[in-house]
Amino acid sequence: MPIKYVRSLTGRRRTTTANRHLGFALAFVAGATNAGGFLAVHQYTSHMTGIVSSMADNSVLGAYDLMLGGAGALLSFLVGAACSAAMVNYSRRRRMHSEFAVPLLVEAFLLICFGFLGAQLSTVDGLFVSVTVMLLCFIMGLQNAVITKISKAEIRTTHITGIITDIGIELGKLFYWNAASTSTHPKVLANRTRLKILILLALNFFFGGVMGAFGFKHIGYISTVPLAMVLVTLAIVPAFDDVRLFVRRVMRK
Length: 253
What we know:
With about 250 residues, the chain is an all-alpha fold. Helix content is about 75%, strand content about 0%.
């Protein structure tokens, strides 16, 4: 993989193509993490809609322990997104090349921790839920926030509801029968490029989920380590650029 291309994926200078390619890769990672994580903790960790709904249900049913468990997962996702935004803004204020790479490197580190320590962490209680659930929710919040900031909220990778909704909207426009058009009622036209991107995001999430579930089923928690290596590959070049610049500044003093 050419260094220039890798740098463009997570570097400071953004292009539409780089945003899309990064989105596809992160959708795959998110799908794998979410599906593999479900087999590990028996809970999807990127689906905040479902978690909030279950909190409401459990509060009515009197299952307050489960409601608090949902609150712990929700808070972990929220903190992950907040940390991602803080890292990006900190790096941006200092004009670092790795403003978008740093959160992905943190995510990679946490996935490695999950891979090697997941079995032990699953027995450790966190905030109303196990540390593994909190860790996975934090990772999902971290990743979703970084791609949201990169693409200015045009691309999301950790949940499919919005993507499927947008696909439906574009399909509705694609198959709309334009009987006649006037200046006040122009033709309804689908954005075919956007439709293609949305379908690819959904497919990458799905195939990532298949690979994540397959990996966890056959090799367990350690299956997250290859996902971490993917993230490191995506983020390492801008991070190395910053390290190189830092060393140059130190040498000049």
